[in-house]
Design goal:
2 copies of one chain form a homodimer.
Chain A: H1 8-15, H2 19-27, H3 34-46, H4 53-60, E1 63-70, H5 76-91, E2 95-100, H6 105-117, E3 120-126, H7 133-136, E4 141-144, E5 157-162, H8 164-177, E6 183-188, H9 193-208, E7 216-221, H10 226-238, E8 244-247, H11 250-262, E9 272-276, H12 280-284, E10 290-293, H13 296-311, E11 320-323, E12 326-328
Parallel strand pairs in A: 1-2, 1-3, 3-4, 4-5, 5-11, 6-7, 6-8, 8-9, 9-10
Antiparallel strand pairs in A: 10-12
Helix pairs in contact in A: 1-2, 1-3, 5-13, 8-9, 10-11
Chain A binds a DNA duplex through helix 2 and helix 4.
Chain lengths: 340, 340
DNA sequence: CCCTGTTGAGTAAACGATTACTCATCTTGC
DNA sequence: GCAAGATGAGTAATCGTTTACTCAACAGGG
């Protein structure tokens, strides 16, 4: 048990070969005899050699670390993506630095500066605000969910998202098919492409079913939280209500369900609900929630692979990947018509 | 817009002072005149200088990064602690590398090797298994929730946990007070101090109320998941059932509620439930769940501060901190006796 | 006027690993 | 037997910062 980790130089002394050779053995790079290899490897193990990533990174200018920028890690949907991302990257022996921005531009900026200082080889932007995009200009990047608004075509990035427009449409069709006519949408903010697309898809499907613009009420909420959903539902209910509600995030729908239940409104009898993301709280919540499902595993896997491709200098097959979504139908819209 | 970040040497060239002076200005270390300072700072800003942390870390052998080892980031309780941890550390300009172990010893080991390679200045162990503890032997460490089994008193660590024993006792008292007599406990694994303490506290309180050992059935479950809770509840219900169930994690209780509801068992009428951690799913679940609350914010804050103290070489005030818990009483035990 | 202390700033040696060169030795074909 | 390629391994420069030494210039006390 050596107290601290030994360096390549000490291994060199011990084995009697030069540091260059030790380095070659470690990286399996260049030529060396079988015996040398064996001797060095034995010493490496015996003395519990741990490579100094700072030194390596300094010399090679590339470090097997990527930054993951996420707005809120306690959001189950983001946490799942992050998890799968990390698994995949770790399998490729990359480590990840996860940064929580809380949607604050200044925090994001500081995180980004830190990541640049660390010389990370790429950045993964989960649902990122476009604010600090110029900061990472030339760095390999993959955006998940939200499309960055960019000034110039810097190009070194990819976008992966699921079909939000379709998701919104599916939600609308489900509510319409179950007989709803007075629709309402709770949308998170008005400047996020993801949530805007969900609303647009919803509207379009409502249109196609013959509803007019006035029949769809849209409420913009400033946060994805159960409290917001609860609060808004009470307000809207006072002001006339709805018979079908689509929330662009599950937490809002959970809050809505709570508010409705408390006011004695039956679900799905008097009002039907559809959420988005199909999180655990949707599946096992007060009212099992019909929700639009997107595979966090696939998103994570794809995003990781794409980022690594960009880092390796290969052009990713596609700059923009859109994944399918499907609707999980549950009690909140009255149906056990789950189609797996 | 320079394409890549400039180095200290280039700033030196630009300003006409030596690299040493530039470094001094950057670190506000050593002597330099006001004018020099101004000139250098201007250049730093103008050329968008970003320190190379690899080089700095190599030279100083300390890097402002700590590793956070967590079993499952999608678990809301862990995610919350991680979040608060990160906020606090970030405020002290430390960055964090979050590692998800999935409770697997080998993954944990690899993560730990990586953290050592990164020369992190400390490690935060959220609910960590003790497996790889020898690996970090001399590294500053803080353990949250679970006590590491250690061979020798290496001493360079602290433990922060909440009062699990009391939490278990509170759960028992609530169930007993509401009239339950046939108790059951779903405990996560049998080798985790946290969950063992919760059970022990529960048992002790039951004892004090006059119940005998036979009156408390204990089921050990291999995972904290809704599915496990659901499955076990069906089994136990076949085998005689209970009128009061305590789950050492909320997800289990949510699954139990689902199973009971499906079998037509009324909650809290025929069976009462108590969970642990007071997660969102407990508050807004199918049956609002009575649950033992522990402040993730306080845990995170305290853990971060303690770790930084150890890193700075100060002995933390206390090696072992136990935080209070309290019971949130909700519908699953039939009571709106919430006492804030 | 000299001695001493302070101030501002430069020189150069690390830190640990990688890698372009170089070179001695060994193979092998003719 | 020898030119030429293959093989194994060493030398030393380099990555960007920090920091222990120096040292010149200057101020002030005696």
């Amino acid at each position: 048990m050596k107290p601290d980790s030994v360096s390549i130089r000490e291994i060199s002394k011990i084995t009697g070969v030069s540091v260059a050779t030790v380095s070659r053995v470690i990286n399996n790079n260049g030529r060396f005899s079988k015996e040398t290899e064996a001797r060095v490897k034995k010493a490496l193990k015996e003395y519990n050699y741990t490579p100094n990533l700072a030194a390596r990174g300094l010399r090679t200018k590339r470090i097997a670390t990527v930054g993951v920028v996420v707005p809120d890690i306690t959001n189950e949907y983001f946490a799942r993506i992050t998890l799968h991302l990390q698994e995949r990257l770790f399998a490729r022996s990359y480590s990840t630095i996860i940064c929580n921005t809380d949607e604050k531009a200044d925090i994001e900026r500081r995180h980004l500066d830190m990541l640049l200082s660390q010389q990370v080889s790429g950045v993964m932007y989960i649902s990122g605000t476009p604010h600090a995009f110029d900061r990472l200009s030339h760095l390999p990047a993959v955006f998940i969910d939200r499309e960055p608004k960019m000034e110039q075509e810097t190009g070194n990035y990819s976008l992966i998202e699921s079909d939000n427009y379709l998701g919104g449409a599916l939600a609308a069709r489900e509510l319409l098919q179950k007989g709803c006519r007075r629709l309402c949408v709770f949308k998170y903010r008005d400047d996020i492409s993801t949530h805007n697309a969900r609303e647009a898809g919803f509207r379009q499907a409502a249109h196609e079913a013959g509803l007019r613009d006035g029949d769809v009420r849209v409420e913009i909420v400033p946060a994805v939280s159960v409290e917001q959903g609860y609060q808004r539902t009470r307000e809207v209910w006072q002001a006339g209500g709805f018979d079908g509600l689509f929330c662009t995030a599950d937490a809002l729908a959970v809050g809505a369900a709570g508010a409705l239940r408390q006011q004695g409104v039956s679900i799905p009898g008097q009002a039907k609900l559809v959420g988005y993301d199909d999180t655990a709280i949707a599946r096992y919540g007060a009212v099992p929630l019909t929700s639009v499902h997107q595979s966090t595993e696939e998103i994570g896997r794809l995003a990781a692979d794409t980022l690594l491709q960009i880092i390796d200098g290969k052009q990713p097959e596609q700059r923009h990947i859109t994944l399918p979504v499907h609707l999980m139908v549950r009690e909140s819209t009255g149906g056990h018509t789950e189609e797996a």
